[in-house]
UniProtKB/TrEMBL annotation:
Its EC number is 2.4.1.83. This is Dolichol-phosphate mannosyltransferase subunit 1. Its main location: membrane. GO terms for cellular component: endoplasmic reticulum membrane. The lineage of its organism: Eukaryota, Fungi, Dikarya, Basidiomycota, Agaricomycotina. Gene3D superfamilies: Spore Coat Polysaccharide Biosynthesis Protein SpsA, Chain A.
Length: 277
């Protein structure tokens, strides 16, 4: 197993009751990294599973994978819950300077991991797996209502970032950029969007890798009405975070203009003004 000093890349996987997907996920990640054309060495990469106390055999599966030589470890959280906080915890624990987040359900194809990791650099501090890239049929296997929800969520985020797919959960960030972020929303649904805004990632610092969604192999979708409400709450918080100073400036300008208008109007109708005319 690689030593701490040699780890340059970390793949963080938030998970809850995803035991059935962990073995194929980890083995496919390292198979992709061990290809002769992989731009990232397997021996410099670790996989971190952040599990919300699933008690479904995930710990035992990871232990078996470790015994087989895979550089994977699991963090079991017993007092915290939630996707975003799990990702943040994984990034905090990561040894690599280049950190990637992906889902455990295999809808983010592990074969894209090498190119995603390799896309990060001191000048490209954020990489985004995008479903809106050239040659990609966005969410082609999804039902119509899921496509509508996905497109609508993306449109609502457009004023916040130039990234083509800020709703993607398949993304990476450099450690130095992550450490700049303040006030991350641990209850938010889309941590990539939160990081893009609060780590102040410049548009030219974003690398994008087109990918097509895979098909969930085990478990069930986490998308619920409650999750969508949380997303709307997160959007409201991000809009205030990014545009609050502009709102304050506009409010001040409005008050000043209103004061000048009232002063001019009262001055025009005052007795002194009438006597001058």
């Amino acid at each position: 197993m690689a030593t701490r000093q040699s780890i340059q890349y970390s793949v963080v996987v938030p998970a809850y009751r995803e035991n059935g997907n962990l073995r194929p996920l980890v083995t496919r990640i390292f198979a992709a990294l061990r290809r002769v054309d992989s731009p990232v060495p397997a021996e410099q990469t670790e996989v971190i599973i952040v599990d919300d106390n699933s008690r479904d055999g995930s710990v035992e599966t990871v232990r078996q994978l470790q015994q087989e030589g895979f550089n994977v470890r699991i963090i079991v959280r017993t007092t915290e819950r939630g996707l975003s906080s799990a990702v943040v915890r994984g990034f905090q624990e990561a040894q690599g300077d280049n950190m990637l987040c992906m889902d455990a359900d295999l809808q983010h194809p592990p074969e894209y991991v090498p190119s995603m990791l390799a896309s990060m650099s001191p000048t490209h501090t954020f990489v985004l797996g995008t479903r809106y890239g050239k040659g990609v049929e966005m969410d082609k296997d999804w039902p119509v209502h899921r496509r509508i929800i996905s497109s609508g969520a993306r449109l609502l985020a457009l004023p916040l970032t130039t990234a083509s797919d800020p709703m993607s959960g398949f993304f990476g960030i450099r450690k130095e950029a992550f450490l700049k972020a303040r006030g991350l929303n641990a209850d938010g649904f889309k941590i990539a969007l939160d990081l893009l805004i609060k780590a102040h990632v410049a548009p030219n610092a974003i690398a994008e890798v087109p990918f097509s969604f895979g098909v969930r192999a085990e478990g069930e979708s986490k998308l619920t009405g409650k999750v969508m409400i949380k997303y709307l709450e997160q959007l409201a918080e991000l809009y205030w975070y990014k545009f609050s100073s502009l709102v304050v400036v506009l409010a001040i300008i409005f008050v000043v203009l209103l004061f000048l208008l009232l002063r001019t109007w009262f001055g025009a109708v005052s007795p002194d003004a009438k006597q001058r005319y």
